[in-house]
User: What shape does this take?
Amino acid sequence: MCGFGGYFGDGVAPHDAQPLLQRMVAAIAHRGPDEQGVFTAPSIGLGHARLSIVGLGDGQQPMTHASGNFTIAFNGEIFNYVELRETLKAQGHVFRTGSDTEVILHLYERMGPDCVSLLNGDFAFAIWDAPRQRMVIARDRMGVRPLFYTTVGKTLYFASEVKALLQVPGVRAEMDPFALDQIFTLWAPIAPRTAFRDILELEPAHLLIAEKSSISIKPYWQLQYPDMGEPAAYTDERAAAEELRALLTDATRIRMRADVPVGSYLSGGLDSSIVSALAAPMAPDGLSTFSVTFGSAEHDESAFQQQMAQALGTHHHAVACGEGDIASTFPDVIRFTERPILRTAPAPLYQLSGLVREKGLKVVLTGEGADEVFAGYDIFKEARVRRFCARQPGSRIRPHLFRKLYAYLPGLKQQSAEYLAAFFGAGDDSPDDPLFSHRPRLRGTAAAKLFFSGDLRQALQGYDAAAELVSRLPEDFSRWHPLHQAQYLESRFLLPGYILSSQGDRMAMAHGVEGRFPFLDHRLVEFATRLPPEMKLKGLVEKHILREATKDLLPDSIGRRTKQPYRAPDSQSFVGTNERDYVRDAFGERSIAETGLFNPKAVSKLYEKCSEKPASGYRDNVAFVGILSTQLWQQTFSATKALGAQAA
Assistant: This one.
């Protein structure tokens, strides 16, 4: 796990090459605190910051093939590198190191860019192919590892984080107003767009091939679900559960491969408990587990964490995250997310990865991905209830089902059927709408755009982020089962755009910690897409087949536990006794007016409201955190007014 940057083109003078690469690497040194290296040749450069996990003594990068033909800078892990190396050895390849990095080089030598089809891992890499004079850049299937790029003149620059690209002369940090609108609608920009104008993100499962006269980008893999009504690939639930268990066990096994100890996050929920239970027998010196605890009962899961840790006999560690802790770390969180965010949830994970590093570990397993792959989120159940209600819009009984979905939100239990139906928009949306499953979330989030300034609205000129999302859906989408449509929306957009980025890679790598995701093994993902919807969401029981496949691993209280999404305190973290000077400054009318993105008077009223009543509703919390994080983004990255810079 590491970070890298580089360029391809004639825009860098030879005497500037090494200093530029060194600056790029220094900007992302937190990703690889163990070693740094650079490689230059005419018109190309690669720089690397290394977090040594596999091949501790011989995995230095950038790494050049023995022939001198290929040089790689690589971020991530190839989990099946052992099997690939044995196959390549049998084909006559000779290896000089024990690293997974060299395996990619030899596989590229044999297959070219098509080598990505054989890689099981979380990766982003750039390979300089000297004989063909081309730079080949790739990103893993699910978008675990980041990769950004931009052009200045005819030169391509690329890096693991935007911070490195901002070291390039001519690259400026300017807010993209359309990206901001997407964040305030969808929680994240729609790749390839980023928060930074003219800086792009290589989409998951894509290859970028740069040659002297062209840059081409193409997908090499995609999420695919069966057409609704076609014969099911799996009809025997027991057999499907057995196959799932075998795949998940193997996905965990190969993610335990490392020359350093591997720990595990343990939230107290189903997914991380399963991963920890599978990993515990594979840890030679016992498994270390890590948790976040909260003072508020609404957010805290420590009782379940302790129960699971005791059941597995792990070396358990926890970090207590209070509202004041969120406030104190939030500016750093935004510096690492490199984009505005709408919730504070990344902040406790930033603290958690700090604890992991403090305890001497560099690698942790997590349960992320299970909710997307096996339909665990409330949004999937909510969409099913909304369709159920739409068939009898006058029913007073059906809306009460919403209470069952959100048992962890006590405020809903006292509401009337009419309120519940109106709150969730039961009957408001057409079942044929491709975004039907997500419309309530989109409406609730987009309400925060009421605080946009007149100048920002004019810059957007009626732009519709949801419509752009629809335009990015595959042709087959309309033929899929509604559950599969909802899963695709979560897996293809929110997962890489927010969960794996703002809450995942960026928070872990801020402290030089690598997260690994057994549920996102592409073999397991492909298997799950072929499962009938009723095996994943059975009635209103989420992840049914996963529970069946792993019920012997967990105490009943964990295995049967209803999903409680990971959340953290939002606006209340920044007001009252937790208030910090930077918060007051960010919400000040002068500061709001200077950035030009929000309406100063409306923002002032929001700040007063949240200060007087910290337990504000979803929409106020989203607006508060979104505005604060945007203001912090401007202070951190941009020295000019966002809209003024674009007009210049």
